[in-house]
Write a structure and sequence with these properties.
mainly alpha; two-stranded antiparallel ribbon; 8 helices; 4 strands; globular
Length: 208
């Protein structure tokens, strides 16, 4: 049977993401120990921060507030990359590699590229656990409109998506030419590079 999106994410994306999250949390922590929610602009906190817990319940146990607990979220979900990146990698990517080195793109190579594209830093936003787990892999703007009580701001979502797409397109092109941009430019000419780049990622990215 075909691998589900969840299985693909757990097998290909999560191992690297779980390690990478520690670095993201460290780099994006504010001076007061909080984080800034990338979709609301509000302060949120790590799991072990007292600010992430509400008043004790009747049993005396502190309750964690998922509205205030920080989670790392892929702006463009892993399954979206599985589809779009895989198509590019098996299409234009293979053509580029065939032209450069006569190699064929294997499943392993494609999955490694998809993992790198998905886990690129600008595709990761710190947001609340409630927002992250509520959206799953759904459309973020649609989720914000359906749940105004979450305080998600469309301008912040659009900004995060634009930043993520630019970074991912750049990473995808780097993967496609296997870090050989200079050699490729010398070997087949800058005009060909530009043409391939446009086929792969469109006209918006200014790296070609």
């Amino acid at each position: 049977t075909d691998e589900s999106a969840k299985q693909f994410r757990e097998r290909v994306i999560n191992p690297g993401f779980d390690k990478f999250k520690r670095q993201i949390y460290k780099e994006r922590r504010n001076s007061d120990g909080s984080y800034t929610d990338g979709y609301t602009g509000e302060k949120i906190y790590s799991y072990n921060d007292p600010h992430a817990y509400s008043e004790p319940d009747s049993s005396g146990d502190m309750l964690r507030d998922t509205n205030l607990t920080a989670n790392a979220d892929h702006v463009n979900p892993a399954n979206q990359q599985r589809i779009s990146s895989k198509n590019a990698l098996y299409g234009v990517h293979r053509n580029i590699k065939d032209m450069i080195k006569g190699e064929h793109v294997t499943q392993e190579m494609a999955e490694r590229s998809i993992e790198k594209v998905t886990n690129t830093p600008d595709n990761i936003v710190i947001t609340s656990e409630k927002i992250n787990k509520g959206m799953k892999d759904g459309d973020k703007l649609e989720h914000a409109r359906k749940h105004p009580e979450l305080g998600m701001k469309e301008d912040l979502i659009n900004e995060a998506q634009k930043k993520a797409e630019k970074a991912q397109n750049k990473e995808l092109f780097k993967e496609a030419v296997v870090e050989k941009t200079t050699d490729l430019a010398i070997g087949i000419g800058k005009s060909t590079i530009a043409t391939i780049c446009k086929q792969l990622i469109g006209d918006s990215l200014k790296i070609c």
